């Protein structure tokens, strides 16, 4: 399969993906965990795909439905298996999903990790086929890939979106995408109070916790009673500060909170999400696209944090 586009993900290049038992890191690995490509040829017995079909990879090819487990993680693309920043790659036929016709490859390649993760954060606790979010307050942290996918999904679902960022310019872009309330977490470090205020004391029903160490405590202070905090990432660090750390047990019970770890999502939920994208004609936000020859630049650009949404590498 010749690749057209792949998004830049930090799973392996920084050596920080060390918290799964089955996921060791070799000295060298092909990076990137999601791609959109075109099938060049199919193996014997493959009937669902044909040469020329446009397809998307899934991050955990064996995770087709239900609960993720160690055996799925042990076969992740981009860690521990080689990823997708390559001109050709062989995939199991059952691991691929069809790229929606209305999306370009550059748009579509952003979906398998960031968008599926956002989708699961908003809908993973609801039964398959019953996505929701209407009238819920959904809080997004920062303006990276997961948060901006979350913004697009939440607004299409009819939710009320609050988003934080270190940049007023990025918050303006978020408003253009429909964000109802924006908070600069640099100039307003007590952003959890602002969340409580803009929700009239209700708090956020769902929080996409991508911040980690420096944000989780604040998320507990602005979550609604009965709300859901999705533990997704750790852009602000992986180790708690030593002060002001009330026990998580207490923090969770205080407002009857559900704390849910998110690990991407299964293929059937990805397909459910693609139907939703199709219905609402959602176009993922690609901030910048780099040619294959400039892949290292793409990683440096991502690390600089100047992006809004996703960064893409065009392989061909
Ligand atoms: N669990 C999963 O399945 C899963 C899947 C995908 C990603 N992740 C993880 O989720 C996190 C986000 O991923 P991503 O792809 O969206 O990353 P990304 O595109 O690199 O987004 C990073 C953004 O986070 C914001 N940020 C940085 N420091 C922050 C802080 N202290 N407080 C609040 N926001 C902060 C910044 O937004 P501004 O520039 O607007 O300030 C930055 O642009 C990463 O840790 C990633 O590893 C987990």
TrEMBL record:
InterPro entries: ADH-like_C, ADH-like_N, ER, GroES-like_sf, NAD(P)-bd_dom_sf, Zinc_ADH-like. Residues 5-313 form the Enoyl reductase (ER) domain. CDD domains: MDR7. This is Polyketide synthase enoylreductase. GO terms for molecular function: oxidoreductase activity. It holds the Pfam family ADH_N.
């Amino acid at each position: 399969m010749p690749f057209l586009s792949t998004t830049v993900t930090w799973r392996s290049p920084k050596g920080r993906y060390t918290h799964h038992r089955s996921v060791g890191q070799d000295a060298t690995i092909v990076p990137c965990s999601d791609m959109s490509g075109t099938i060049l040829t199919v193996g014997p017995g493959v009937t669902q795909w044909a040469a020329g079909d446009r397809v998307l990879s899934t991050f955990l090819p064996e995770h087709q439905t239900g609960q993720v487990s160690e055996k799925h993680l042990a076969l992740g693309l981009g860690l521990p298996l080689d990823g997708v920043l390559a001109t050709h790659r062989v995939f199991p036929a059952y691991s691929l999903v069809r790229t929606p016709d209305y999306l370009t490859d550059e748009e579509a390649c952003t979906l398998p990790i960031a968008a599926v993760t956002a989708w699961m954060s908003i809908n993973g606790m609801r039964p398959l086929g019953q996505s929701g979010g209407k009238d819920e307050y959904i809080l997004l942290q920062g303006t990276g890939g997961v948060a901006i996918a979350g913004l697009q999904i939440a607004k299409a679902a009819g939710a009320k979106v609050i988003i934080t960022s270190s940049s007023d310019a990025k918050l303006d872009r978020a408003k253009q995408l429909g964000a109802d309330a924006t908070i600069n977490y640099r100039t307003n470090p007590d952003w959890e109070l602002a969340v409580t205020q803009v929700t009239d004391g209700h708090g956020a029903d769902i929080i996409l916790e991508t911040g980690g160490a420096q944000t989780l405590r604040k998320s507990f202070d602005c979550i609604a009673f009965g709300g859901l905090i999705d533990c997704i990432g750790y852009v602000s660090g992986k180790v708690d500060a030593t002060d002001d750390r009330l026990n998580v047990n207490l923090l969770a019970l205080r407002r009857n909170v559900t704390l849910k770890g998110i690990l991407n999502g299964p293929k059937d939920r990805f397909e459910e999400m693609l139907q939703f994208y199709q219905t609402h004609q959602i176009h993922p936000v690609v901030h910048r696209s780099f040619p294959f020859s400039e892949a290292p630049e793409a990683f440096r650009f991502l690390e600089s944090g100047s992006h809004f949404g996703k960064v893409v590498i065009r392989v061909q």
